[in-house]
Design a protein that fits this description.
Strand order of the largest sheet: 1-2-3
Order of helices and strands: HEHHHEEH
Number of strands: 3
Oligomer: single chain
Mean pLDDT: 85
Helix content: over 70%
Number of domains: 1
Structural class: mainly alpha
Strand content: 5-15%
Number of helices: 5
Largest sheet: 3 strands, mixed
């Protein structure tokens, strides 16, 4: 990550000589999130949800093991139709377990997004306000090298120039 920042800054150095009025800022959105009181509540809620899913999955796993043991234990004494029915039940249970894992994973991701979204919006709003109040041209997130803020008054959209250069309309 540090190498990316050095390369990025190195690329910006020539611009610095021509653009004395630009003001760049950097921030770590992860560090901001880590400092927020909401973090502990979100983590606690997500850990509780994960524990519930793991508990349910464990119950299904125990049921699966029990049915497999019953089938293997009675292999020699059970009639063929009962063995087939139990093998079919085991197959259906395997499918239920697989479906449960998929649904649980999707639900967990949705819950995670629902809990993080308001916090991320709060962080983004604060960064926007800091950028405006302190006349920054750009504020970059060091965690993922994205632009979190850019000043509309000191930034020029070069899309028309690039399109013209490429002969596009």
């Amino acid at each position: 990550m540090f190498k990316k920042l050095v390369v990025f800054v190195w690329c910006l150095l020539p611009l610095a000589t021509f653009a004395q009025n630009f003001k760049f800022g950097v921030v770590s959105s992860t560090a901001i999130f880590d400092a927020m009181p909401e973090k502990a509540t979100i983590q606690k809620d997500l850990e509780a949800l994960n524990t519930r899913y793991e508990s349910e999955l464990q119950k299904l796993g125990e049921e699966y093991q029990r049915k497999v043991s019953d089938l293997v234990g009675g292999q020699d004494t059970l009639p063929e139709t009962i063995r087939q029915r139990r093998a079919q039940e085991i197959g259906e249970l395997e499918q239920r377990i697989q479906n449960f894992r998929q649904v649980a994973s999707q639900d967990f991701q949705q819950q995670q997004q629902a809990k993080f979204q308001p916090v991320m919006e709060k962080i983004a709003k604060a960064i926007q306000e800091v950028g405006q109040e302190n006349n920054f041209t750009y504020i970059l997130d060091l965690d993922n090298m994205t632009v979190l803020y850019f000043s509309p008054t000191t930034t020029e959209d070069v899309l028309p120039l690039v399109k013209a250069k490429m002969g596009l309309k």
